[in-house]
Design brief:
458 residues; mainly alpha; two-stranded antiparallel sheet; 74% helix; 1% strand; disordered C terminus
Length: 458
Amino acid sequence: MRTSVFWAVIVAIGALFVAASRLYLTNDYFYFAGYVVLEYIVLSTAWNILGGYTGYTNFGVAAFFAGGAYTSVVLHKLPVLLHTALGWTVPPIPLPAMIVAGGLVSGLVGLGTGYLSLRLRGVFFAIATLALAIVVQTLIVNWDFVGGSRGTYIIRPQNAPLGGGYIQYLFALMTALAVLAVGIARSIERSRLGLGFAAIRDDEQAAEASGVPTLRLKLISTTLSGALMGMAGAPLPYYVTYLDPASSFNLAYAVNSVAMPVIGGMTSWIGPLIGAILLGTVQQLSTVLISSAVNLLIVGLLLIAFVTIAPNGLVDVLEGPAQGPFAPPLNRARFAVRWLGLIAIIGAACAWFVPHLALVAVAPYWQAMTLLPFQLLAAPLFVPEGWLFFIVVSTAQLPFLAQRLRDAGRSGWFALLLFVPIVNLALLLVGFLAPTRRSRPHSSFDGETLLQKSRSHG
């Protein structure tokens, strides 16, 4: 697909997405949750431009993201400051202008950071970006104009420019930013600039010896990546209405921005998109159904699973094994095992979350159901057993792990894997046969409670 056609398609999809949300979504929670997922699409795509395309790991996402957020705070307070100090009457600055300004500020920070640190490579560059985040946070904490360590309140305007609630307006703006970020990433991938980034990622010394302007390309990468992160952070003060360093420099932004491209795939523009939608949706569901405290735990478990099963992300798995008459059978076997493992992971996540959502949807009509056999069959589905799904996922990974250990010559560890199915079977038996299983506390939407209600109703 040509680049111009791709831009037209994604712009049309974004416009239809916003229009459909206005027509069919009446609960503001969906806009709040969708805003976060779209925000992670922008952040992960921006990170992938430097980390995936160019091969430089950036742990300073929070610095660029918070730079955009506090740029909006400064511009929000600027009219009052000018009126108080100089007597000038300046109208409030619109949020789109703040987004552009946040992108410019964070882009300049990325340009300066790249010029000072891009001569470093590998882990040294990653440490330098992490130090950048600490330096920027220290500056923000000691800057009283933007609230310092105590934070600052931002009052949203009464009326949204596009009609509806202001959260709907923020949702539409973040959709536009997601479309912009994905379009830029895809355009880079299909251009000479993307080829230069790939040459730096594969072998920087060889690229430089071949005449590739490596420093110039790396500066472009850091500037563009930082600008997109700053644009993603600019609407944050209007989303949270109270901004402090703890929220703007949250560890989740840095962790998710790295984890989502890794899970989706760092060699393609669609990888961060898939990873952000998958991981962001799971985190939003876990915040509602379990607790927001387990979000980073979910990220860690998924990272471990995907690094083990699909080191190059979902995109690499979807491309399939090597084709042709010389493709080894083991390659096909590993491909099949990876697919089984990924299906087990996605199935475990769906089995954990979907029954809760389905139960919330059908709970008002549960007492009205008269088909008792249907209730008897459906009620056990609403009893989530997290450890059971962990067993399924870990067992699905065994063949691939065993093959890797065997290839590495670690026969002792390979032998230990034989005990894993035995342990899993023991856990299953303990879980199903333990007498205390039915007395443990659980959520109010418990399947056994529904089963009892259905029996009494029948």
